[in-house]
Amino acid sequence: MPWADLSEVTVALRHLLELNINLVLSPGLNPTVVGTPPDQLGNNVINTISVYLHHVKETACTQNLSGPGSDRPNIATAPLGLDLFYVVTAHQRAAAGFDAVIEQRLMGYTLKTFHDYPVLTDSTVIVDPATNLPSNVFVGGQRGRDNRLNIELRKLEPDQALAIWTTGERQFARLAAYYQIGLVQLEPERARRFPGLVLSVGAFATPLGGVTLTGSRNQVTFDLPAIAGGGVQSIRVEPARPALTAPAGPNSTFTLMGENLAGGLRRRVVLRNARWARLATPAERVPVDPALNAVHGWTFDFRADRIDVRAGNQVTYQPADGGPPVTIDVFPGTYMAYVETITHERVVAGQPRVISTNSNETPIALAARILNHVITAASNTIRLNFSPAFDMNISPPAGERLDIQVTVDGQAYRRRLAAGALQPGEFRPLAGAIRLHALFPVANPGLHTVRVMVEGVDAQPYWIPTP
Fold first, then answer.
1. Is 80 helix (H, G, I), strand (E, B) or coil?
2. Which alpha helices (H) appear in 26-175, and where do they start and end?
3. Rounded CA gap, 446 and 465, in Å?
4. FRET partner for 173 with CA separation of 20 to 30 A, picked from 22, 40, 214, 393?
C-alpha cells in the first residue's frame, strides 16, 4: 500500500540510523539525525548527521498507469511512483573549527548502516545486543502498509561531487554520500465511481467495486532456548498460520489482505475445509457471522485494505435450508477463506431480495500450539502439552482421526494405534497432548528440535533441552 506522506520516508531513514548507530555500532554516541539541508545547519553544530531529500523523480515503470474505477481523471486513483535522491553529510563544527575525524567517523557509521540494511520493510528490526530486544524501523502509521524501501548508494565520480558543491567563485567539496531510494508510491485518491453491472435484466442494476483478497499473513511467536540466546521471537508468515488456542488470544490472530473489503451493507468471512465437508451433515461453506461467534472468541475488524481476524475453536453457522444454528469444531488444517458482501436489500414483486458479491478465495492454515513439555526419565518419554482448543485423540467412530506427524532431531516417529506401552520412536496422541518415547536418553544433556505437524500444518518452532 502506498505511503501517505513523503516525509515518512525521511523519518524511516533517520530512525534506522539512530537505532543502528546507538544500539549496535557505537552505543552511547547518540548522534542527532536531521533532515535539514547541510548548508542550513549553521557554524555551531556537533555530532550531527544530515539526511536531506534534494531531488525527486517520477519512476518510469509506474508512469501513466490507469487507476481503478471510472473517475475522471482516472490517473488520480493510481499511486504516484517516485525515486527519491538524498545527500548525506556529517557535521562536527564548533566556534573553534571543525573536527574532520569525528565527521569521518559519523559518515562511516552511516555508510555501514545503509550497506547492512539495503532493504527496509515492516519486518526490518534492529536488535539491541545488550538486551536482545528488537526495535522496528518502521513505526506508527508506516507499518502495516506492505511498503518496501530499496536503498542504493549512487556511484558519483570525484569531479561530479565537486561540481555539486561548487557555487560561483567558491570551489570546494565536502564529505558526502548520495543515495537513491525507491520505489516510493504516494497514496492515490480513492475511486468513487465504478462501471455498472446488470444483475437482473429489466429490474435494476447496481455498481460494484471488485472485492479482492490478495493473501493472508500473521506473526508466529516462539521461544528460543537459553543456549541460543533465549527470548520470544516473532516471524511473519504468508499465507497466515495462526494457532488454535483456548481461549483465543494473540497467537490466534491473522490478517486477510485485499481491496474494497469494508464496503456494502454487511459483510462476513466464509470458510471452507475438507474435514467439514466430510462431516455426517456436510458443511461445504461455513459463514462466520460475528454476532453468532463472539462467544467462541471470533473477532473481525473490517478495513478497506485488510480484515484483522481472531480465530476461535468453534463456529456456529446458520444452515442454508433455514434450520436451527449448527455448531462445529475448528481443527488444525488448511482452510480457504473468502468475503461475502451484502450490497443491497430490496423488495422485488413483494419478495425480499438480497444482492451479494463474493471475493476470490485465499488460503489460511490453522495450527496446533505447543504450550510446554514434561520429561519422564524413568520411562524415557516426553509429553508435549498443547493449548486445549481441540482433542488430539479423535478416533473413529466418534470422528475422523487427525493426521499427526512428529519429528525429533530430524527422525520421524511412528504413531502407535494399538494399546500397550510405547516403544522407542513411537508416539500416541492424548487429550490435549502427545506422548512420545524418545530415541535418545532424556537424562543426557542436549538440545532437541521438535516438529509437530497436524493436518499438514506445522506448530510453532519448539526445542526440548535435556536433562
1. strand
2. 100-116, 158-165
3. 6
4. 22
Quote the pTM value.
Answer: 0.56
Residues 243 and 306 grouped into a single domain = yes
Residue 86 sits in the same domain as residue 164: yes
- The span from the first CA to the last CA of the chain, in angstroms, equals 49
Give the angle subtended at the CA of 57 by the CAs of 33 and 174, to the nearest 5°: 45
Query: Is residue 25 classed exposed, middle or buried when 0-12, 13-18 and 19+ CB atoms within 10 A define those classes?
Result: middle
Its domain, for residue 335, covers 206-366
Asked if 138 and 230 sit in the same domain, the reply is no
| Alpha-carbon 30 to chain mean position | 31
Is 123 part of a structural domain of the chain? yes
Nine cell digits for residue 416: 502407535
Rg (CA), the chain: 29
Same domain, residue pair 385 and 361: no
Are residue 257 and residue 351 in the same domain, yes or no?
Answer: yes
Residue that the C-alpha cell 473468502 belongs to: 338
Q: Which residue has the cell 474435514?
A: 275
Q: Which residues contact 202 (CB under 8 A, 6 or more apart)?
A: none
For the chain, what percentages of helix, strand and coil (3-state, to nearest 5) are there?
15, 45, 40
Compute the distance between CA of residue 135 and CA of residue 380 in angstroms, rounded to an integer.
41
Residue 329 buriedness (CB in 10 A; 0-12 / 13-18 / 19+) = middle
Beta carbons within 10 angstroms of residue 139's beta carbon: 12
**Structure-block grid coordinates of residue 25:** 555500532
Q: Do 380 and 352 fall within a single domain?
A: no
- Whether 199 is in a domain gets the answer no
- Let me know whether 257 and 278 are in one domain: yes
β-strands 32-34, 45-58: how paired? parallel
Tens place of pLDDT per residue across the chain (467 aa)? 577 788 999 999 999 999 999 999 999 899 999 999 998 888 889 999 999 999 999 887 776 666 665 556 667 777 888 899 999 999 998 877 788 999 999 999 999 999 999 999 999 999 999 888 999 999 988 888 888 899 999 988 888 888 888 776 666 778 999 999 988 887 776 656 555 554 444 444 444 457 999 999 999 999 998 887 888 999 999 999 999 999 999 999 999 999 999 888 889 999 999 989 988 888 999 999 999 999 999 999 999 999 999 999 999 999 887 789 999 999 999 999 999 998 877 766 666 677 888 999 999 999 999 999 999 999 999 999 999 888 888 876 667 889 999 999 999 999 998 999 999 999 999 989 999 999 999 999 999 999 999 999 999 999 999 98
**Cα-based distances in Å from 364 to 145, 285, 308:** 20, 15, 13
Do residues 221 and 277 share a domain?
yes
